[in-house]
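Bug report (template v2)

What were you trying to do?
Predict the complex of my protein with flavin-adenine dinucleotide.

What happened?
Run completed; filing so the output is reviewed.

Input:
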Amino acid sequence: MAIVVQKENCIGCGACISICPVGAIEFEANGKAEIGENCIACGACISECPVKCIIREQVNNRLIIDLDSYKNIWVYIECEKNRPKNVAYELLGVARRLADASGEECVAIVIGGLSQKYLQDLIANGADKVYYLENNNYLEYNTEIYTQVVTDLVKEHKPNALLIGATVNGRDLAPRIAGRLKTGLCADCTAIDNSAEEAKLIEWTRPAFGGNIMATIVCPEHRPQMGSVRPKVFPVSRADYSRKGEIILIKEPNLQDNLVKILETIVDISAERVNIQDAEIICAGGRGMGNKETFEQLYTLADLLGGVVAGSRAVVESGWLEHHAQVGQSGVTVGPKVYFAFGISGAIQHLAGINACDMIIAINKDANAPIFKAADYGIVGDVQKILPILIEKIRAIKVEQE
Ligand SMILES: Cc1cc2nc3c(=O)[nH]c(=O)nc-3n(C[C@H](O)[C@H](O)[C@H](O)COP(=O)(O)OP(=O)(O)OC[C@H]3O[C@@H](n4cnc5c(N)ncnc54)[C@H](O)[C@@H]3O)c2cc1C
């Protein structure tokens, strides 16, 4: 829907011009407001206009969807090495909650090869039904095949919503499916809820404008409602093996349009070396570590604790750490049992990556640093002094234990 000014009622007060976050509104020569092409249709000007002369206008070529014919909450189950990735269980927990609130079913879709045990796990974790395309030729993710299988299934069964993990492959798959289905996709959601007014309408929340605000987005006119969620944003709910569900084998798609053939797979060794996403203990450092030498002391602490080293974007930009170990909005979302934040201020973009940590211990010389608001334990002091003491104490405890 486009946003337009009903010129005859415009009083030229300029309220819409000052509120527009992207500077898309200007005065015409006659003193009336005019909406430019860079309008993002956020609607801020609509509520700001004192004479209510700004409206959303229906675009004529709009796709009309019978919303009532779409039901159930679906989760795409991403697999690796013949088992579901952890993010699949995290999404099943969310989908189960949404489905319970709207009186719908929670449905999982699996492509590739999973043993009966893992299919049952999906049911125990919330699925009422599992649509399963079993084929050992599709064990590896393939853009064309996976997009076609999921798109065909959605067209046939018409789910109300579809959740996909925002992994490397999920980020490729989700927009392709949304594009083919001509529906919206809210990427990298950090909260997902049923709307208070209408349970089947989903409210997707994600950081917007560089992480400075949280935007809640709805997809009121198209289906399925689609969202992607990064790993470790939501917890895995407790499995209930008394749950009953149905496993439905789906038929082979007609793949004559498949244009992609995988010739070789090259494993990203650097990302395998340090997997901060699955680590139980993370020793993370920020710019407050002062220099690369001090930052590297974190490896000693991590080795003693059996953890890994990560950091803020500031240290990645300083060249002290590789990008795959960056925590935060433009890095990785982590969920360890213990997260040490040494000399990290706690910018909103960093905090976006550590919501799921069980315990955060912050060390910062500034008692007012925002990281302390997120932390369970805090030490106000200089990392240059505290880190060596911590290493010494933990080493002594380990020697005592041996
Ligand atoms: C679109 C966008 C995406 C972003 N994505 C990310 C992201 O994914 N991850 C991320 O981390 N950031 C991200 N950022 C950057 C983010 O806004 C911050 O700039 C960054 O997190 C700051 O890193 P920092 O806390 O290490 O450094 P600073 O903000 O400089 O903080 C350093 C902290 O160290 C403390 N300190 C200094 N010296 C000492 C000392 N001797 N002892 C103890 N404490 C000390 C200071 O008090 C301060 O709190 C993003 C920004 C944008 C705009």
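What did the reviewer find?
Residues 67-249 form a domain with the Rossmann fold fold (CATH 3.40.50.620). The chain has a mean pLDDT of 92.
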